[in-house]
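>> Question from a student workshop board

For tomorrow's exercise we were told to take the sequence and the ligand below, predict the bound structure, and bring the output to class. My setup keeps failing. Could a helper post the expected result so I can at least see what it should look like? The ligand is flavin-adenine dinucleotide.
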Amino acid sequence: MLKTNCDPHADFDVVVIGGGPAGATAGTILAQHGRKTLVVERAAFPRFHIGESLMPETYWVFERLGMLEKLRRSTFVRKLSVQFVSASGRESAPFYFDERDPRECSQTWQVLRSEFDRMMLENAAEHGAVVWQPCNVVDVIEQAPPLGSGRLPAITGVVVQKEDGSTVRVGARVVVDATGTNGMLSRRFDLRQADPALRKASVFAHYKGAWRDPNPRDTGATLVMQIENQAGWFWYIPLPDDIVSIGIVGDIDYLIKNRGKPEQILAEEIARCPFLRPRLEKAERVSPVHVLSDFSYNSKACAGDGWVLVGDAFTFLDPMYSSGVFFALKSAELAADAIHEALAAGDASAARLGVWGDPFYAGVQAIRKLVYAFYTPDFSFGKFTRMHPEFKDALVRLLIGDVLKRDVDGIFEPMSESVRIPAEIRLSPPPDASG
Ligand SMILES: Cc1cc2nc3c(=O)[nH]c(=O)nc-3n(C[C@H](O)[C@H](O)[C@H](O)COP(=O)(O)OP(=O)(O)OC[C@H]3O[C@@H](n4cnc5c(N)ncnc54)[C@H](O)[C@@H]3O)c2cc1C
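>> Workshop helper replied:
Here is what the output should look like for this input. Compare the format with yours to find the bug.
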């Protein structure tokens, strides 16, 4: 747990609400820029959080954050590939990330989030961000927009509730919402829109003593396994201390409506997955069974006057490709640079703070298309790359998270022959663009 030390007279360049991966990244980079930054996290760490498998492209953000050496020294499991297994047990060849680039950046880690999030937030403090934890942001300080401007309110600070229940108002030139799925500002301003075609739920837990691939190259691989009736898929993520994270994702109506307790659902679904069952024969469950639902959404805008949304507070996509932490880190990195430049220019307007939104969101859209491909009956990446070997490299680039350059988009034309790719969900113009 980091220091609470709330100073009621302190005002900051930037206040970041939430100290998860997105908040810690924004806090670190803003502090590196020399900005007086406060990160407020309401939970005492360590605490459980889902989101354990990283994408290799997180590497470059970790490098910037000064996290690489800490990750190398950690006990987190090295992840070199991802492999898909069909309902009939047919295994795709593993997609090894280092096939196209043998450098360390093609590997990544399977992390215990309780430990990873603590390391990230401590790293932000080491770089000079002030961290208040556990402290809850209970409100933001709004400034009404000019009448008839069509703009959303500006934000000029936050109200923080300390552990003893007292509250303190803290002024900021910019407020970053990194509150995860809580989405404090997107809910306040009604910006969140769910993806109606991805109404999924997930049931998950940690197991000890489950099967590990003896081949060192495969032992840290993420396995993605379809269940018998194709109504869902399991992740299999090897973690430190002989723990494996197991979780199923399926339609809400199938997975959690009119079903029994979470423990019962998980046991029934494991029994339906012929590839998973034998791997758990000698394992015991060592965590509660968690349930989450309706987690795919975006926000109509990523910024307003004096405020920015990052990480899950901005957008989240089905966990199929383990893209959540990467998008949290990347959005926070881009937003932190935009905030620094906006403050330098003395202009914390929505247009200036949200300048990174469209190019970033194009990358989210690319992964979203892959998610739709995965959920298309009879579509398989193995089949696709056998028919279109010229796109295997683009597919691996997407799987590692190399999604912000638009030269990978050629893959979606042949894919659209068998996959109904939905219309793009676009970001609204920044609220002041029309005002
Ligand atoms: C079923 C499932 C499986 C997933 N699997 C993966 C995976 O394998 N790999 C992957 O990369 N991603 C995965 N994700 C996504 C991943 O969990 C998130 O994308 C990631 O945690 C986002 O980071 P964040 O910092 O935006 O939010 P969070 O990690 O949720 O952090 C937000 C923080 O804000 C704090 N907070 C909230 N409100 C307040 C407040 N008012 N005041 C102060 N603090 C506040 C919270 O306590 C929390 O610590 C998965 C998601 C789901 C639903």
